[in-house]
Write a structure and sequence with these properties.
This protein has about 325 residues and is of the alpha+beta class. The protein has 8 helices and 18 strands. The chain has 3 domains: about 110 residues, no CATH class; about 140 residues, Jelly Rolls, CATH 2.60.120.1440; about 70 residues, Phage tail protein beta-alpha-beta fold. Strand 2 and strand 3 form a beta hairpin. Helix 3 crosses helix 6. It is globular and about 55 Å long. The two termini are about 45 Å apart.
Length: about 325
């Protein structure tokens, strides 16, 4: 896919910003909005991620050392380096992006661990294996950043959903931070989903500590707000207390990985928002009083486009198809 230089340069600017230590929540939301505007935006950003990952693999190699040691003439060496590393037909990227990614690599080494970003498109599921052998399954239309080093293991779930299979390391706990909530584990399997202002955690195996503040440093100084065991789950709305802990069958935690969406006593607004990650079209609730209606249902990911009709069979609502991309639900 050949992307325009303008989109590639915008993606490069966003990626560079996301490497900043002082990136704000507003910056991440604006990036999310930009990624959602068009599939070309997501593709351009994904291509930069691929280059960044390749650079991470090669930064300690002899080629990477030579590139850092001698940068004259810089442009010529970059072109030669990347012509050998990634043929143009495989990564249709502008030279601007290559320069941004390599410039980041050439920055002087610091004590700050590198942050790596991953994202997925509508209906896409991606499996990521971290250097500590932990595995993350990233759900559709989701974004995370990871910091894995000799002293730290942390993931920021920026949006969407992820299932974690964490390698055990008692000396170095694993943290997942999302929406001002922190999950701490030593080694276990659990699912975290962020929908609108709601975060849900479901544990498939092991024990999970949950803190109501999004702070990971010196976390041992604080007592967890909740401790979840295997087969348990909890939901927390922003600005509210944790909802009561519920039983979650092991088969339900991360069931989306097998193409099954399970919603138990979830608000209709959250169901529509979550299911919308699997399709490019939009389902819109036009009546405010429908948003808080609690629904329990199960559907396959390949049935999401049928969700409005399925809801109309059990709820007092009408389905209005405005176009191929927009469906309204109202009572």
């Amino acid at each position: 896919m050949q992307l325009s230089d303008q989109i590639n340069e915008q993606a490069a600017e966003w990626f560079t910003l996301m490497q900043s230590a002082d990136v704000s929540a507003e910056d991440r939301q604006e990036l999310n909005n930009w990624l959602s505007e068009h599939s070309d935006h997501r593709e351009a950003y994904r291509q930069i991620e691929l280059v960044w990952q390749s650079i991470g693999d090669l930064s300690g190699s002899e080629e990477g050392f030579e590139l850092r040691r001698s940068v004259e003439p810089f442009s010529s060496r970059l072109k030669t380096f990347f012509a050998e590393l990634m043929p143009a037909q495989k990564y249709a990227m502008s030279f601007t992006i290559v320069c941004v990614a390599v410039t980041l690599m050439l920055l002087p080494e610091s004590n700050t661990p590198a942050t790596t970003y991953y994202s997925t498109g509508a209906g896409e599921i991606k499996t990521i294996t971290l250097v500590d052998n932990s595995e993350i399954t990233l759900g559709a239309k989701s974004q995370i950043s990871t910091v894995i080093s000799d002293v730290e293991r942390s993931v920021n779930l920026i949006s969407g959903e992820a299932f974690f299979d964490v390698a055990k390391d008692r000396q170095k706990p694993f943290f997942v931070i999302t929406n001002n909530l922190t999950v701490e584990v030593v080694g276990t399997q659990f699912n975290v989903r962020q929908v609108r202002d709601s975060v849900s955690v479901a544990v498939a195996e092991g024990i999970v500590n949950i803190f109501s503040q999004g702070v990971q440093s010196a976390q041992s100084e604080f007592l967890p707000a909740l401790v979840l065991m295997a087969g348990q789950g909890v939901v927390k709305e922003a600005g509210s207390n944790f909802e009561p802990v519920t039983a979650v069958p092991a088969s339900d935690a991360g069931a989306w990985r097998m193409g099954r969406l399970v919603y138990r006593d979830i608000s209709l607004a959250n169901i529509v928002a979550d299911a919308g990650r699997y399709i490019d079209s939009k389902i819109v609730l036009q009546s405010d009083d429908l948003a808080d209606v609690k629904v329990t249902m199960t559907l396959r990911t390949d049935q999401v486009d049928q969700l409005p009709q399925m809801l109309s069979q059990t709820l007092p609502l009408e389905v209005h198809v405005i176009s191929d991309n927009i469906t309204l639900l109202k009572n």
